[in-house]
Amino acid sequence: RWLSELQGADKVTQMIDALVKVLNYVAEDTSEFVDVGREVEFIRNYIKILNFRYFERFSFIFDIREETMQYEIPRFILQPLVENAVKHAMPAEGKLTISISGTLDGDDVYLHVNDDGIGMKEDALKNIMAPKSETGLGIAVKSINDRLRGYSSAKAYMDIQSELGKGTSVTLFLPDCANL
Q1: CA–CA dist 152, 96 (Å, integer)
Q2: How far apart are CA 62 and CA 137, in angstroms?
Q3: Between the chain's N and C termini, which has fewer beta carbons within 10 Å?
Q4: 3-class SS letters over 34-57
Q5: What is the pLDDT of residues 64-115, one digit of tens each?
Q6: What's the start-to-end Cα distance of the chain, in Å?
Q7: Which residue in 167, 89, 161, 177 sits closest to 125, CA to CA?
Q8: DSSP element (H, E) containing 162
């Protein structure tokens, strides 16, 4: 970091700062749940690293209601969705916009990760919850879904909508997050 500051490499300095924060988040606390605010801060730093790696080909929009920030959710529940959008939704040319939003309905938390990328074919969308281990596709999505079901007596769910050429929308429903 010190060398990048001396050389005036501001982007490298910012990326190193983000990397340190991501590593601290991963290493400092091993609890299963974190509040939405901490998870969002982790995602913001993760995104800084991605934008450095991919030369600013992404834009991100956060719309998380302040009252949602205090609720507990499973750690690392958003990161695989952001990573999937980056890996699989990027158009051949142009930028990708990913929006992350969160709302509350009583003590129920809704988190949304949307992108305006290439979308999925209907058959891929149907098969995403039953991944084929030899391809590796869908493993993160299945893992998130399994974790959601394990934390809330099968009341939590993940809904994925996608349209080829228009993007993908993932909604996570986490019921009764005040009591996790």
Answers
A1: 33
A2: 26
A3: N
A4: EEHHHHHHHHHHHHHHHHHHCCCC
A5: 999 999 999 999 999 999 999 999 999 988 899 999 999 999 999 999 999 9
A6: 38
A7: 161
A8: strand 157-163
Structure tokens belonging to residue 50: 């991605």
- Nearest CA to 96 out of 77, 119, 64 is that of 119
- Residue 178's alpha-carbon distances to 36, 64, 65, 104, 155, in angstroms, are 12, 17, 16, 11, 15
- pTM here? 0.85
- CA–CA distance, 139 with 128 (Å, rounded to integer): 8
Instruction: Judge contact between 40 and 63, C-beta under 8 A.
Output: no
pLDDT value, residue 137: 60
